[in-house]
Amino acid sequence: MAVTIVCVRETAPGERRVALTPEIAKKLSALGAQVLLERGAGESAYFPDAAYAGAGAVFADAPEIAVARADVLCCVQAPANDRIARMKRGALLLGLLAPHADPARVQTLLDAGVTAFALERLPRTTRAQAMDVLSSQAGMAGYKAVLLAAQLAPRYFPMLTTAAGTIRPSKVLVIGAGVAGLQAIATARRLGAQVEGFDVRPETREQIESLGGRFLDLGVSAAGEGGYARELTAQERAEQQRRLGEHLKSVDVVVTTAAVPGRPAPKIVSAAMVAGMKPGSVLVDLAAETGGNCELTRPGETFEQAGVVIAGPLDLASQGALHASEMYARNVFNFLALSLKDGALALDWDDELVARTCLAHEGRRRE
């Protein structure tokens, strides 16, 4: 019997993305799966029901019906716990499940006997790149963060020569040179700003410079494993903050992107640093969802503090819902394709991508 792959509307506030697009629905159907959607599941990302129908998908009028029939439930953000409880025992849940954010969610998964794959746990290997949802979504978030900064800034980004005189380019500093940070650097450069990038991992210098940015060397290195930074010692952090605080006095726009998966965002920009920034400066904190890189950030709010505008957006990837959904759905398909054979599921627990991404299986949590 063909596996039933389900996608319903996202329920998290502000979430516009969808886990399956018509393109991926067609590919899954070609592999022998049945694709079942709640009506309107893709509307907020601008994918109408007619496009899904043309791709071979069928519809359920109520999400509860679809969820109860799912052999695989694909999501962007984790469903509500009562929805998870309605899933069949042994069914698969696949998405950004944020297990660290809600211990009750993990317990619900265990009680329901659901096999859960938290895509944020995917190993960062070359083979996994086509499935890396963190990277694909971070790229959109970095792009949108710079556009937001440009909108909030009371100045031009590019240098302009006009009859009224020459306007100097804005000086933009991007903190964190992961996927989001590098996209932010590239976007700020396209807008004509003078761009610097800072990361405690020295190996990012080449990447920053390849995008036209200048690497800001504060004399502190925190090279870690798996492409992530290690946590700084107290002495290292104090020296980093001293040097960064001095540098911020000359910066017009700061975009912070530093994050550690499964943990609160590191505090990099202190209140004292913000107080030292020029009036009219802007700080966009891309890490607001996990607490923020700035001590003053209020997740979900934009406000002014002593002449400095601080923004803590929560849904930047969702603001680019159409392209973000396309990338996310392709990531999901590439992961599912590891286990989908002739319309049936066959999980290969010897595959590290399957094994290490799994959060819960047969009522037991997997670490």
From TrEMBL:
Which terms under GO biological process does the entry name? NADPH regeneration
Q: Which GO terms describe its cellular component?
A: plasma membrane
Q: Which reactions does this protein catalyse? A: NAD(+) + NADPH + H(+)(in) = NADH + NADP(+) + H(+)(out)
* An example molecular function term from Gene Ontology annotations: proton-translocating NAD(P)+ transhydrogenase activity
Keywords associated with the record: NAD, NADP, Nucleotide-binding, Translocase
CDD domains membership: Rubrum_tdh
Q: Where is the Alanine dehydrogenase/pyridine nucleotide transhydrogenase N-terminal domain?
A: 6-141
Q: What class of enzyme is it?
A: translocase
Q: Which InterPro entries match?
A: Ala_DH/PNT_CS2 (IPR008143), AlaDH/PNT_N (IPR007886), AlaDH/PNT_NAD(H)-bd (IPR007698), NAD(P)-bd_dom_sf (IPR036291)
Known EC number: 7.1.1.1
Say yes or no: keyword Nucleotidyltransferase present. Answer: no
The reply to whether Translocase figures as a keyword in the UniProt entry is: yes
Domain named Alanine dehydrogenase/pyridine nucleotide transhydrogenase NAD(H)-binding is located at: 150-312
Q: Which family does it belong to?
A: Belongs to the AlaDH/PNT family.
What function does this protein fulfil?
The transhydrogenation between NADH and NADP is coupled to respiration and ATP hydrolysis and functions as a proton pump across the membrane.
Its name, as the record gives it, is proton-translocating NAD(P)(+) transhydrogenase
> Which source organism?
Arenimonas fontis
Q: What is the lineage of its organism?
A: Bacteria, Pseudomonadati, Pseudomonadota, Gammaproteobacteria, Lysobacterales
